[in-house]
Specification:
This protein has no helices and ten strands. By secondary structure, it is mainly β. The strands form three sheets. It has a four-stranded antiparallel sheet with strand order 3-10-5-8, with no helix packed on it. A four-stranded antiparallel sheet has the order 4-9-6-7, with no helix packed on it. It has a two-stranded antiparallel sheet with strand order 1-2. The radius of gyration is 14 Å and the shape is globular. The two termini are 18 Å apart.
């Protein structure tokens, strides 16, 4: 099965859309409160993941602060936790976030802006290598 993220962008095995949303405020956005940010399974797969990374594209007109977050369940019953340090992705720029083992069951993103963006979108792809 071929999955299309956006017109012209096709999913590859081991990749998943993690975020595609437009943000226009300074609130903290996660999969819990924002349509277009998703929680994706990464851990406890067979075969085991050998590596993982998140490609982030900030097409908004302000710099974004991005924090990878994790959870042990998909049902929002447990609190999220931070994975690694946050990173700043400048307006109109892309960056890679490399995830180091140990693997967590589910991952997502927490995205915020110091100044509210007025145009653009935020996009991220999770890539897992087996």
């Amino acid at each position: 099965m071929v999955e299309f993220f956006l017109p012209g962008i096709v999913a590859r095995p081991g990749s998943a859309l993690l975020a595609y949303t437009s943000i226009t405020d300074t609130n903290t956005h996660t999969y819990r409160n924002t349509n277009g940010i998703f929680l994706k399974k990464i851990g406890l797969n067979v075969p085991s993941a050998k590596g993982a990374a998140i490609w982030v594209y900030n097409a908004e007109n302000q710099a974004a602060t991005v924090q990878v977050i994790g959870n042990i369940a998909a049902n929002q019953m447990y609190p999220d936790f931070s994975i690694g340090s946050s990173t700043t992705v400048d307006a109109g720029s892309a960056d890679w976030i490399i995830l180091s083992p140990p693997w967590f069951e589910f991952v997502s993103l927490q995205v915020s802006y110091a100044t509210a963006p007025t145009t653009g979108y935020f996009y991220a792809i999770l890539m897992v290598y087996y």
